[in-house]
Amino acid sequence: MTQAIYPGTFDPVTRGHLDIIERSARLFERLIIAVGDNPAKKSLFTPAERVAMLRRETRRLRNVQVRTFRGLLVSFARRSKIAVIVRGIRNAGDFEYEQQMALANHAAGGTETVFMVPMPELAFVRSELIRQIAAGGGDVSGMLTPAVESRLRAKLARRGSRR
Fold first, then answer.
1. How far apart are the C-alpha atoms of 93 and 105, rounded to whole Å?
2. Which of 26, 41, 158, 163 is catalytic?
């Protein structure tokens, strides 16, 4: 069975992420979306919230599972018995970083990395940028699904009311 892992923070899941997920789901018999739980990263959404959003957005894709992981991705891949990692690359900067990670993951865990380029209209989409635009009151509707945008706006409103 051809299986792959698509790891990320997904804070929040964007249309760019969903593009890679949908296309990867067509290429692999099983795709695990691995939501990184890194306490050192300052995420807006909790791991459970990110998993819930991803499960909602991918529920129609029968061969996709969403799970969290902590620690090294290659350790998670080894425990899951999956040797292929999918990574999206938007630009040359992404490629240089992802190439280094792919080489390190291969050396440490024997994994192979498949790079996917998002559709051109989604190539600029980054979760961090979306959070900044939304926090400033900007329009992010083309970058998120309506459900994710609603959750993002609600989360930002709650966070703003605590200041």
1. 18
2. 41
Kindly report, residue by residue over 2-50, the tens digit of the pLDDT: 999 999 999 999 999 999 999 999 999 999 999 999 888 889 999 999 9
* Rg (the chain; Cα; Å): 16
**Domain-located, residue 155:** no
The three-class DSSP label of residue 98 is helix
What is the domain count for the chain? 1
Q: Is 127 a catalytic residue?
A: yes
- Quick check: is 152 in a domain? no
The answer to whether the beta carbons of residues 57 and 148 sit under 8 Å apart is yes
Q: What range does the domain containing 57 cover?
A: 3-124
Choose the catalytic residue: 24, 43, 87, 127: 127
Catalytic residue among 90, 106, 153, 155: 90
Strands across the sheet containing 112-116: 64-69, 30-36, 3-8, 84-88, 112-116
Give the pLDDT confidence of 92-149 residue by residue, as tens digits: 989 999 999 999 999 998 999 999 999 988 888 899 999 999 999 999 999 999 999 9
